[in-house]
User: What shape does this take?
Amino acid sequence: MTRQNKEGRTILHLTATSNHSLPVADKLLKKAPGLSGMHNNNVEAALFSAARYGKVNLFNLLAGNISGYDAVSRQPFLQINNSSTVLHIAIISQHFELSLQIAKEYKYLIGERDIDGMTGLRLL
Assistant: This one.
């Protein structure tokens, strides 16, 4: 279950593209909780995939798994090497309701700049 394909994606990353992602993801995480922390070749955790595809329920499930982490431990789930955040990807993918939810929940991401110096607000 924890194998990765050539792009580094796990079954949890791929589940984020499915219309029935929540029940599948829930079962996967119960059997292999470490899946949520695995990153693909772009250093994206499955939380990024959920944001990219606008899977609000899956995003909430995955975010719930890291809610008890301190800010430093949570960061690899919310931001990748080029400084893009889950807020950036939700905005770029035009999932504006999810973007608003992310901005409210993770206020400090609002001012984060990507590799081009863009904040989420500037991307809008």
The CA atoms of residues 50 and 95 lie 11 Å apart. The chain has a mean pLDDT of 90. The longest helix spans residues 21-31. The chain is about 50% helix and 0% strand.
